[in-house]
Design brief:
- InterPro entries: MTAP, Nucleoside_phosphorylase_d, Nucleoside_phosphorylase_sf, Purine_phosphorylase-2_CS.
- By secondary structure, the protein is of the alpha/beta class.
- Helix content is 30%, strand content 22%.
- The chain has one domain: Nucleoside phosphorylase domain (Rossmann fold, 3-Layer(aba) Sandwich).
- Strands 1, 2, 3, 4, 5, 6, 7, 8, 9, 10 and 11 form an eleven-stranded mixed beta sheet that branches.
- The protein is globular.
Length: 282
C-alpha cells in the first residue's frame, strides 16, 4: 500500500480536473459500513494523495446520507493524517462574495441529530476537545496556497452546518447571520469532529457559490451551478499549489485524542479494539 498521508474530501468535480491524474482505486472496509466510494489514489505534478468523493460518484448521497464515520475511518486506516475538505457553501456576509474561497476555523452544528457523529459510543466512551476543530497550521498553509493560485480568499470565519438537502428559509438565513457565521453548508459536521477524534489534521476550503437567501435577490440552482463551474477552475489552481506543498512538507501537529477514551480497557470488546486500533493510531 502506498505511503500517502494527505487526502482531499470533496465533490466529484474535483477529481475530474485536468491537473489530477487518477492512478488507482482502493476498496476499504470499516466497522461502520462502506465509505461514500472507493478511495481514489491520485497524483498532481508527481505528488500522490487520496481523494474521496463525499457524495459518491455521480453525487447520489444527500448530506444526511453520507457515511461520515466510514469516510474518516477509511482514510485513517489507509494512513492518512491530513485532510483537505473542499466544500461548496453559501455566504452569510457581504464580504464573502460568490467565487471567493473562505478558510474557516470554526463550526456551528445546526443539524438535527440524524448523523452518526462519533467513534466513541455503543459501549465505549471518549471525549476529544473540539475547541479548535480546524488544524490552524494547515488552515494557514491552505490559505497561502490560495494566494499563490491567485484565488480571492479569506482567512478565518465560522461555518454553520445545516441538515439539508433543502436550503434555508430567509428567516433562518437572517438568524444564522445574527450568529456571526461567515458561511453556510451541509457537510462539514460531523466530518470535522470525526477527523479530530481520529487525531487527524483537518481544514476546510469553503468555495462560495451564492449569498444564501438573506440578501434581497433571488438565486436559482442553475446560477449556483454556473458559479460552481468557475469555482472548480479555481480549485484546480489551488490543488496544484496545495498538494505538492503538503506532500513535500507535511503539516506538523499534535493529535488531541491520545487520552480520549474513558472506558476501562477491561470492558473493551473485540469491535471496540478494532475501532480504537485505527482511530488512536499515531
Amino acid at each position: 500500500m502506498a505511503d500517502i498521508k494527505v487526502a482531499i474530501i470533496g465533490g466529484s468535480g474535483i477529481y475530474k480536473l485536468d491537473a489530477i491524474k487518477v492512478k488507482n482505486q482502493v476498496k476499504v472496509t470499516t466497522p461502520f459500513g462502506s465509505p461514500s466510494a472507493d478511495i481514489m489514489e491520485c497524483e498532481v505534478d508527481g505528488n500522490s494523495f487520496y481523494f474521496l468523493p463525499r457524495h459518491g460518484h455521480g453525487h447520489h448521497f444527500t448530506p444526511s446520507e453520507v457515511n461520515y464515520r466510514a469516510n474518516i475511518f477509511a482514510l485513517k486506516k489507509l494512513g492518512v493524517n491530513t485532510i483537505v475538505s473542499i466544500s461548496a457553501v453559501g455566504s452569510l456576509q457581504e464580504e464573502y462574495a460568490p467565487k471567493h474561497f473562505v478558510l474557516v476555523d470554526q463550526f456551528i452544528d445546526w443539524t438535527k441529530g440524524l448523523r452518526k457523529r462519533t467513534f466513541f459510543d455503543e459501549g465505549i466512551v471518549g471525549h476529544v476537545s473540539t475547541a479548535n476543530p480546524v488544524e490552524l497550521s494547515l488552515q494557514k498553509r491552505l490559505y497561502d496556497a490560495c494566494q499563490r493560485a491567485g484565488v480571492t480568499s479569506h482567512l478565518g470565519g465560522s461555518y454553520i452546518c445545516i441538515e439539508g438537502p433543502q436550503f434555508s428559509t430567509r428567516a433562518e438565513s437572517k438568524i444564522y447571520r445574527g450568529f456571526g457565521a461567515a458561511v453556510i453548508g451541509m457537510t462539514n459536521v460531523p466530518e470535522a469532529f470525526l477527523a479530530k477524534e481520529a487525531g487527524m489534521a483537518y481544514s476546510t476550503v469553503a468555495m462560495v457559490t451564492d449569498y444564501d437567501c438573506w440578501k434581497e435577490e433571488h438565486c436559482t440552482v442553475q446560477e449556483i451551478m454556473d458559479v460552481m463551474k468557475s469555482n472548480y477552475i479555481s480549485a484546480q489552481k489551488f490543488v496544484k499549489e496545495a498538494i505538492p506543498d503538503l506532500v513535500k512538507n507535511p503539516v506538523k501537529f499534535v493529535p488531541e485524542n491520545e487520552y480520549a477514551v474513558m472506558t476501562d480497557a477491561s470492558l473493551h470488546k473485540p469491535h471496540h479494539k478494532e475501532i480504537l486500533e485505527v482511530v488512536l493510531k499515531k
